[in-house]
Amino acid sequence: MECGFQTCLYTSRLKERWRKVVVASGRKSQEPNRRYFATCSRGIGDILGAEVKTMVTRNVTTVAASGVGFEGDQETGYRAAMCLRTAMRVLEEIGYAEADPFDVYHVVKNSVDWKAYLGKHQTFTVSVRSSSGGDRAIRTRVKDAICDALVDQTNARPLPPRSPKEADVAIFVSFHDGELTIYRDLGGESLHKRGYRPPTIHASSLNETAAAATAICAGLAKSGSSGMIVDPMCGSATLLIEAALLKLRIAPGLFRTSYPFEEWMDYDSAAWEVVLEQAREAELEPSRVLEENSFLGNDLHPAAVELARENVSRAGLSEVISISEGDIEDLHIPDRVSVVLSNPPWGLRLADEDGEAWKKLGLFLKQNARGGDAYLICGNGEATKELRMRADSKRPVRLGNVDCRLLKYHVLKAKDSAR
Fold first, then answer.
1. pLDDT averaged over the chain?
2. Across 266-401, where does the E strand assignment appear?
3. Alpha-carbon distance 164 to 260, whole Å?
4. Residue 384, C-beta contacts closer than 8 angstroms, at least 6 positions apart
5. What does the pLDDT look like over 225-267, one tens digit per residue?
6. Angle between helices 238-248 and 208-217 (to 10 degrees)
7. In sequence order, which ranges of 208-268 are alpha helices (DSSP H)?
8. Given CA atoms 153, 157, 162, 164 in this order, what sign does their dihedral have?
9. What is the Cα–Cα distance from 43 to 12, expressed in whole angstroms?
C-alpha cells in the first residue's frame, strides 16, 4: 500500500536517531549525523531511493512512495541537492517534538535554537503539511513562534522577505499524528526547476523530475545502453533533455547559479566545492555519448517545436538533440529506434479527440520501433486502448493533482507479432 508524503515523514521519524560518524574527507574528525528527507512525486520513491544509494549515501533510513530518508554530514546534503534527478526537495531536519495543534507555537519556539539558523538580517518563509488540516493556521503559529524566539534571543525581529523565492531560509514543517518535525529546505524552490525552461510554461508540461524518472525506468542510466532515443510528440522536449542529461552524467544542480544554503550561518564552502568539483568531473563529452546514442524529438505544432529547440539550447544540448516539425505519420526513421519516451495527449492534459494521437503513436511504434521499448505517461486509461498494444508494466505515479501511469510497452518484432 502506498503511503503519502505525511506518512513517509512519519515513518522516517521511527528510524534510529542521531549517531556519531567519522567523516571520510578528514575536514572534521567527528560530527553528528544530520537527518535528511528528500521528497518526490508519489509513486517514484523507489527510484529516488536507488538514486540516493548510488549518488549520495548508503545510509538510507526510509524508502517510501513519496520520499526517502537518509543520514550524513553537510556534504551529504549538498550532494543530494546537486545530484538527485527525481527529488523535488531535500530537507534537513532541525527539530522534532510531540505536540497537538494547540501546542505548536510553544513547541516550535522552544524546540529549536533559532539564532543558530537565522541571523539578525536574514529572512525566512514557512511551509506546512499537516495530516489533520489547518495548514494556514499552523503556518501562522510557526511564523509567530520563530519571530518571538528570535526577539527573545537577539532583541531583533526578522523582516519578511521581498518574495518567498528570495528568503534566506525556507522552513518546512510536517505535522502528522501528533509528531511535529521542523526542516530547512536546501533548495528553497522545488528542485524540478532546473533552469533550462522558461519560468512560465504550459500547464500540460511534464515536470523535470518525472521526466528523469521515466528516463531512469527506461534503463538510460545504465552503461552500455545504446541506440536511438525518440520522442515523436515531444512538446517542450523535457523527456529528451532529461534523458540526454542522464546519459551525459550532467548533474541537474549544475544549472542553478546559487542555492539558499550558501547563505546559511553554518555553510561549509569547502564541502560545497568538493561536491561541485566532483559533479563537473563526472560529465561525459557529448561526442562519447553520441557514438552509441542519438536523440530525436518531433512535434506537429510549430510553437512547441520552437520552445523545444529553445529549451534544448538553454540546456546546452543543441549538438546532442535534434528537433523536427511534422505529423507523426510522416516521421520515418532510417535507424532502428531502441527507446521511445513520450507524454502524448490524453484528454485532461491536451485535447485528443477520438484518441487520434494514440492511434498514430501505435502505428509509429510498429513501423519504427520493432524490438524496442516505449515508455509512455498517461492519465487517462481510455486513451491507451487506441495503441492496440498490451503494456508490460504499469507504474502508478501522482503528477500534480492527477493519478497517472508510467507504462512500458515492448514493441514486438515483425515475426513475433505475427505469431
1. 88
2. 293-299, 321-325, 337-342, 373-378, 393-399
3. 12
4. 358, 376, 378, 391, 407
5. 789 999 999 999 999 999 999 999 999 999 999 999 999 999 9
6. 60
7. 208-217, 238-248
8. positive
9. 17
Please check whether residue 191 is in contact with residue 85, taking contact to mean a CB–CB distance below 8 angstroms.
no
What is the SS3 assignment for 39? Answer: strand
The reported pLDDT for the residue numbered 15 is 41
Cα–Cα distances in angstroms (integers) from residue 266 to residues 4, 276, 305, in the given order: 32, 18, 45
pLDDT of residue 200: 72
| Residue that the C-alpha cell 529506434 belongs to | 337
Query: Helix, strand or coil for residue 256?
Result: coil
Strand arrangement of the beta sheet that strand 321-325 belongs to:
321-325, 293-299, 227-231, 337-342, 373-378, 402-410, 393-399
Whether residue 373 contacts residue 340, with contact meaning beta carbons closer than 8 Å, is answered with yes
What is d(CA 94, CA 269) in angstroms, rounded to the nearest whole number?
Answer: 20
pLDDT tens for each residue of 124-141: 999 999 887 889 999 999
Q: Express each pLDDT in 203-232 by its tens digit.
A: 667 999 999 999 999 999 987 778 999 999
Determine phi and psi for 415, rounding to 5 degrees.
Answer: -65, -40
C-alpha–C-alpha distance, residues 85 and 210, integer Å: 9
